[in-house]
Design goal:
- This protein is an alpha+beta fold.
- It has 2 domains: 3-48, no CATH class; 57-202, Nucleoside Triphosphate Pyrophosphohydrolase (Alpha-Beta Complex).
- Helices cover 19% and strands 34% of the residues.
- It contains 4 helices and 11 strands, in the order βββββββαβαβββαα.
- The strands form 2 sheets. Strands 4, 5, 6, 7, 8, 9, 10 and 11 form an 8-stranded mixed sheet that branches. Strands 1-2-3 form a 3-stranded antiparallel sheet, with no helix packed on it.
- Helix 3 (168-177) crosses helix 4.
- The longest helix has 13 residues, at 99-111.
- Keywords: Hydrolase.
- It comes from Blautia faecicola.
- Residues 51-188 form the Nudix hydrolase domain.
- Belongs to the Nudix hydrolase family.
């Protein structure tokens, strides 16, 4: 198994930092591995706390309309892509904040809609890692029903977001033609093919 000898913080930024790890791989060769993290210090990295699975962020999979036949998506400009990508509404969890509370807050901020979360088994909502080849970030998922009117009143100036209430026909088009974030794509596939989009949440072993 590989070993980490030393952690060197490379940047000091508000929301994301780069860490250079001095490592030894399984055959004893020394090298460097670079990790992007929400952690403010070396001690806050998840590699320093194996038991720490506190979510850095939360994603919201919500249905809209009287028939619950539309899914709430956002089409957001992202600098790393130099363009727009379809995503689930999402955001960072504040220190000490419950991620279900964060989901309600984030949906309101990004879309103007009110979220009514539903209770699901922990295996579907607990924090999972987003891209472990480059970051230790993990995010929880909150499911529920959205209501109200779309509004940009609560949106931050740094956010460039179009709210999309997509039916199955539009979801199919987006998956076929547009750039889509991975978690969003998986949830859209459930929405597209499952008669009851939340049916999978009621299946546990």
């Amino acid at each position: 198994m590989g070993k980490i000898n030393k952690v060197n913080k490379q940047t000091t930024n508000p929301y994301l930092n780069l860490y250079d790890l001095d490592v030894v791989n399984k055959v004893g060769r020394e090298g460097h591995y670079y990790v992007a993290s929400r952690a403010k210090t070396e001690d806050d990295l998840k590699l320093s706390h194996a038991e720490n699975n506190d979510p850095d962020g939360v994603a919201i999979y919500s249905l809209y309309g009287e028939k619950k036949d539309r899914v709430v998506l956002i089409r957001q400009f992202r600098y790393p892509l130099g363009g727009y990508v379809y995503e689930l509404p999402a955001g960072l969890v504040d220190p000490g904040e419950n991620y279900h509370t964060a989901a309600i807050r984030e949906l309101k901020e990004e879309t103007g809609l009110k979220l009514e979360p539903i209770v699901v088994d922990d295996i579907y909502q607990k924090p999972y890692y987003t891209s472990v080849g480059m970051t230790d970030e993990c995010c929880g998922t909150v499911y529920g029903y959205a209501s109200g009117e779309i509004s940009k009143k609560y949106m931050e100036d740094s956010e460039e977001i179009e709210v999309v209430l997509a039916d199955r026909k539009e979801v199919a088009r987006i998956l076929k033609e547009e750039r889509v974030a991975l978690l969003c794509a998986y949830m859209m596939m459930h929405f597209l093919h499952d008669e009851e989009p939340f049916a999978f949440l009621h299946t546990t072993k």
